From TrEMBL:
SUPFAM superfamilies: Type II 3-dehydroquinate dehydratase. Keywords: Amino-acid biosynthesis, Aromatic amino acid biosynthesis, Lyase. This is 3-dehydroquinate dehydratase. Belongs to the type-II 3-dehydroquinase family. It comes from Mariniflexile aquimaris. The active site is at 23 (proton acceptor), 98 (proton donor). InterPro entries: DHquinase_II (IPR001874), DHquinase_II_CS (IPR018509), DHquinase_II_sf (IPR036441). The lineage of its organism: Bacteria, Pseudomonadati, Bacteroidota, Flavobacteriia, Flavobacteriales.
Length: 138
């Protein structure tokens, strides 16, 4: 059984309320329950924090024992050299995920400190981006 974790960064706890025209109206908890049901043979966990250091700590914690990490670092994608370095320092492969197409948004969102160290990047497919990331590990 594959052991995967979805790690979400800042403001993703507001999914379902925050800018529904971009992020949709489904909460992440609702989506997570559905994706766990879709993949009963995958041990799927979830972690969210608005704090950069907690995200780095979680990457260190799971980065040598899990089969895969699905990471949506939110705005930290574009600002956090520390998260990029944490991914470089662990063994577990990371798929970078974004709900929106970051290249169709503000220019500062076109840069990622995660992508150079990620197994792959999936963006712009709404919450389905997470589903596609799970499939990439199967």
């Amino acid at each position: 059984m594959k052991k995967l974790i979805i790690i979400n960064g800042p403001n993703l706890n507001l999914l379902g309320k925050r800018e529904p025209n971009i992020y949709g109206s489904l909460t992440f908890t609702e989506f997570f329950e559905a994706i766990k049901e879709k993949y009963p043979n995958v041990q799927l966990e979830y972690f969210q924090s608005n704090v950069e250091g907690y995200l780095i700590d979680k990457l260190h914690e799971v980065g040598f024992s899990y089969d895969g990490i699905i990471l949506n670092a939110g705005a930290y994608t574009h600002t956090s050299i520390g998260i990029g370095d944490a991914i470089k320092g662990i063994e577990t492969p990371v798929v970078e995920v974004h709900i929106s197409n970051t290249f169709s948004r503000e220019e500062f969102r076109h840069q990622s400190y995660i992508s150079p160290n990620a197994k792959g990047v999936i963006l712009g497919f709404g919450l389905q981006s997470y589903d596609l990331a799970v499939q990439s590990f199967l």
